[in-house]
Amino acid sequence: MPKKPTATDAELIMQLYDLRREAEMRKARNWWFTGFWPRSADDFLKIAFAPGTPENNWLRQVSGYWSMAASFVLQGALNADLFIQPAVSGEMFIMFAKVQPFLKELREKAGDPEMFATIEKVIMSSKYGRERLKFMLKRVEMMRERIALAKAS
Known about the structure:
By secondary structure, the protein is an all-alpha fold. The protein has one domain (7-152). It is built from nine helices and no strands. The longest helix has 26 residues, at 127-152.
């Protein structure tokens, strides 16, 4: 049986939230959620293999943040049921939904079989996480379509 959330879990969640409020992290999160809509592994890798650019920094900052937070869950330092709630990790689901459709190819082309693995393990470890991912995959695709229509008009 999973451990019940504790006050220590809540404190860690609040510390993670505070990290998300840092100025450069806010820019990175904004870029991920409004400006970065990869449709393929190549779209992702174009940014990933452009060191020194703001977009490369932002890509690594947000994906690294959520990978780190997910590792806390996998190692038992943070309650999984608390962490997976949308108010805590909803952004992680959106970010992962943007890359999940081509994740296998992305891992192969990057030569990194562990890319996004901690996030994937946390999401896939519960029925709720799997259902939430399905929901987010649909939502992200709907958002991609809206952005494409807006750019076309």
